[in-house]
C-alpha cells in the first residue's frame, strides 16, 4: 500500500511536493552510502553510462579535498549499477510514484548527490522540467531520499510551495563563482516564501518537475548525501524538437506489464520545443556540453 495517504496526495497537488517520513529503512541507506564509497574510492568501477562528477571547486584546485569522498559532487545515471538501482526500483518508492502519476512508470533520471564539506555546493533555485523532454509535466515526479540527517546547516532542499502551477521559466548561470556544471538557476524568481525541508534519514520528498527548488551550502564538517530519481508515467509524449543537449537516452519501464522494456514512443516532435531556448546564454550551453562530453 502506498505510504501517501489521500491527505498527503492533496498536499502534493496543492503545493507541488509532499514529504513522506521514514519511507526507506536504514539498512538500505547504508548499502547505498557504502556503494558510493566503493565507487568513489575506486574499489568498484563506475558502471556503464554512469557519470561521477567532481565538485567544481575541487576540479579548479580552489579546495584541496581531505579524502576522495570530499572531492565528489554527485553520481549521475546509476541505473546500470545493481546496488544503487535498488533505490530506483524500491517498492515503497514505486508505490508512491504511482499514487502521484498513475500506474506503469519509467525512470527518466537518477543521481546520488554528495554535497561534501568545504565547497560551495549550492544548487540554485530551478525547475527540473528544464532537463526533460516529456509532457505533460503532471506525469513526471521526482523522489529524493535523505541518506543522513539533512538540515539547514548542511544544505537541505529548499522549495517554493505552489510554484508547480507556473510556467517553465528561462534558466541560466546565476553568476556565482563556483557553480557545478549543468546547474542552472531559474530567472526572475521571488524566493521570499521559501520553505526549508529538514529531513531525517529515510524521509523522502516527492516533488513536481515545475516546482522551483534548490539547496544551500553545507556549512558543517560532515557530508549531506541524498539519493534521487525522476519517473514519468509511460503514456507521456516527447515534446522537444531535438534530442536535447543531454543526448540520446533510454527510458526503462519499472512497473506494469511492460516492466523491463524501454519507452518506445516517438522522439523529436516536429515544431516542438527547442530546449536550448530555455537557457539564457551560449555560455550556459557550453556548460551543458561539458557535462555531456564527460558522460560519453
Ligand atoms: O540535492 C540537492 O542539493 C539538489 C538536488 C536538485 O535540486 C536537483 O538535482 O534537481
Automatic annotation (TrEMBL):
One of its GO terms (biological process) is fatty acid alpha-oxidation. It comes from the Bacteria. GO terms for molecular function: phytanoyl-CoA dioxygenase activity. Belongs to the PhyH family. PANTHER family: PHYTANOYL-COA ALPHA-HYDROXYLASE, PHYTANOYL-COA DIOXYGENASE, PEROXISOMAL. This is Phytanoyl-CoA hydroxylase. It comes from Arenicella xantha.
Amino acid at each position: 500500500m502506498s505510504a501517501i495517504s489521500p491527505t498527503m496526495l492533496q498536499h502534493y497537488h496543492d503545493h507541488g511536493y509532499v514529504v513522506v517520513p521514514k519511507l526507506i529503512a536504514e539498512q538500505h541507506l547504508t548499502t547505498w552510502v557504502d556503494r558510493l564509497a566503493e565507487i568513489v574510492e575506486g574499489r568498484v568501477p563506475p558502471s556503464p553510462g554512469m557519470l561521477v562528477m567532481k565538485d567544481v571547486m575541487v576540479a579548479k584546485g580552489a579546495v584541496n579535498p581531505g579524502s576522495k569522498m570530499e572531492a565528489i559532487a554527485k553520481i549521475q545515471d546509476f541505473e546500470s549499477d545493481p546496488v544503487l538501482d535498488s533505490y530506483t526500483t524500491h517498492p515503497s518508492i514505486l508505490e508512491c510514484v504511482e499514487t502521484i502519476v498513475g500506474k506503469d512508470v519509467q525512470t527518466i533520471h537518477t543521481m546520488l548527490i554528495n554535497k561534501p564539506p568545504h565547497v560551495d555546493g549550492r544548487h540554485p533555485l530551478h525547475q527540473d522540467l528544464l532537463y526533460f523532454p516529456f509532457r505533460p509535466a503532471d506525469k513526471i515526479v521526482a523522489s529524493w531520499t535523505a541518506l543522513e540527517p539533512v538540515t539547514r546547516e548542511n544544505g537541505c532542499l529548499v522549495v517554493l510551495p505552489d510554484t508547480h502551477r507556473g510556467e517553465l521559466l528561462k534558466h541560466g548561470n546565476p553568476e556565482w563563482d563556483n557553480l557545478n556544471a549543468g546547474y542552472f538557476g531559474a530567472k526572475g524568481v521571488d524566493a521570499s516564501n521559501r520553505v526549508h525541508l529538514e529531513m531525517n534519514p529515510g524521509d523522502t520528498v516527492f516533488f513536481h518537475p515545475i516546482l522551483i527548488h534548490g539547496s544551500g551550502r553545507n556549512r558543517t564538517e560532515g557530508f549531506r548525501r541524498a539519493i534521487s530519481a525522476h519517473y514519468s508515467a509511460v503514456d507521456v509524449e516527447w515534446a522537444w524538437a531535438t534530442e536535447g543537449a543531454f543526448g540520446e537516452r533510454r527510458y526503462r519501464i519499472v512497473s506494469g506489464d511492460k516492466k523491463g522494456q524501454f519507452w518506445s514512443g516517438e522522439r523529436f516532435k516536429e515544431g516542438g520545443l527547442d530546449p536550448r531556448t530555455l537557457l539564457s546564454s551560449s555560455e550556459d550551453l557550453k556548460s551543458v556540453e561539458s557535462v555531456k562530453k564527460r558522460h560519453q
